[in-house]
Amino acid sequence: MTNALTGAGDRYAVYRPVLDLIGKSEGTDKGDGYNETLNYGAYTGGDVDLVSMTLDQIDALQTKMLRHPKNKLKSSALGRYQIIRTTLRTMRQQLDLTGREKFDAEMQDRLACYLLGQRSIDKWPAG
């Protein structure tokens, strides 16, 4: 699934090909990628509406995932870009996010683009 904002209103249009590639390679584009959790809900008790949750609620869910006895991967990856708790906590601090923000498609794209920026993605569109 691609972002509903694709097109003229897409703030991340220049990065969309890379974001779509990441979504596809993470295996989150089979359904509503922005709501996918590691192992498709195996460590969250089923499907979760991530896009309606706040960042604080996401942190609590990721903690729950890490504590799940069957989570042998010890991973808290979720969302279209499979962001883990440690990375999300670091970005929240760096971006001065309060935790009350929604983990919606816009936020997930923003966070993914921030991570791409940390890895010098801005050199890519320039050639």
Structure notes:
This protein has 127 residues and is mainly α. The protein is built from 4 helices and no strands. The longest helix is centred in the C-terminal third of the chain and has 14 residues, at 105-118. The two termini are 27 Å apart.
Question: Can you lay out the helices and strands and say which pair or pack?
Answer:
Layout: H1 16-25, H2 55-67, H3 85-94, H4 105-118
* Separation, N- and C-terminal Cα atoms: 27 Å
Dominant shape: globular
Q: Give the ordered list of helices and strands.
A: HHHH
- Please give the number of β-strands: 0
> What value does the Rg take, in angstroms?
14 Å
Measured by DSSP, the beta-strand proportion falls in: under 5%
What portion of residues is helical?
Answer: 25-40%
Low-confidence stretches: none
Q: Structural class given helices, strands, pairing?
A: mainly alpha
Quaternary structure of the protein: single chain
**Helix tally?**
4
| Mean pLDDT over the residues | 89
Largest sheet at a glance? none
